[in-house]
Amino acid sequence: MSNFQESGINFKFQSSQWTVVKYDEHLAHKKVSNALQPTKAVDFLGIHDNGQLFLIEVKNYRGHTHDEETRNVLQAKGDELMRRIAVKVRDTIATVIGSARFSTNDEAFFTQVNQLLVDDRKKIVIIACIELDATDDKERKAQMSVWMQKLKQKLSWLHAVKISINPVDNITALLPDTEVSFI
Known about the structure:
Strand order of the largest sheet: 3-4-5-6-7
Number of helices: 5
Strand content: 25-35%
Number of strands: 8
Order of helices and strands: EEEHEEHHEHEHE
Largest sheet: 5 strands, mixed
Radius of gyration: 16 Å
Shape: globular
Structural class: alpha/beta
């Protein structure tokens, strides 16, 4: 069982079928990002049941949707936010290759991540957990749907991916054996 916090949200991967690292804070990623700025990464990199690769990015804007920086990121129907998430996915995929080569404590994990990345029979699951201040549920679903299409376009170069954008209350349906809650 692994328990991680990100942006005021707790992720409890409850099953031994999960292997998860907090990739944006992992030493393997930091070696690359320190050498080549700016290099970004998703929050979590996980493998479920030895066969499903998950890249998870968390954005919690609750209480900040009216901040100038947040408004800039969310404007233009989320183009900038989806660009930032796509860059994190791209950089994560690029840096896990190096992670498999020089990680001393998680070499087997990163080797398996690379194997799953090149296996075109396996879908890569990309989840963006985006939390906003409470809005009309119908409006929020429409917004998330538009964002998901934009992210799919930006990640169209990835073959065999499943992309999902959801708030915290819908995310557990996408992450097997996982409990997600606010801290």
